[in-house]
Amino acid sequence: MKREIIQTLDGSTTIHIAEWDECYHSKHGAIQEAQHVFIKNGLSLFPDRNVSILEIGFGTGLNAFITFLESKKRNQSIDYVGVEAYPITAEEIVAMNYVEELNAVEQSSIFDIMHQSNWGEKSILDDDFTLTKRKQFFEEINDENKFDLIYFDAFGYRVQPELWSTAIFEKMYNALKPNGVLVTYAARGVVKRSMIEVGFTVEKLAGPPGKREMFRATKN
To answer: Do 199 and 168 contact (CB within 8 A), yes or no?
Structure first.
């Protein structure tokens, strides 16, 4: 499918899939969405401790990069795993303007290493942040009690409802440690029902700019 680089309303870039009319990040602001959904309502729940994170949809690397920057501010050690079935191209990576928009020029090499690191191998980005990228389909995930936090950033239910199924959320539930948390930009009733069916306790929270609501789910 044809993909194009577009600028979102906060000035940061994302990738748009014309055939689906779907973006990798919110068209209302890619950086704003990542900070609101995954940092404010996810990472901030784990202050002053080591955190293991699973990202569903590594994509452009934006969520991983913002998490790295936040970990430096918070003095956190993070073990980050990003799952992606269809990695973006080198040309698309270069077109992303996250380093500039986040005023993180001093950390530009980290963003490059995130994308240049080998799939399936753990990369040590610094003393307190490791990254493992896994090229696999979401239904192939079989981790057990491994993660504190899941960033669920799959393409929307409208275009890929199979990624929001009970079967997928059962895998997410199993992958989390007890009291682990999953955060996502989604807020559809059918998604909430699937989460509850596998055992999650689900909260509806205020969404990022351009979206009224989002979900946070906790493993009981």
So the answer is: no
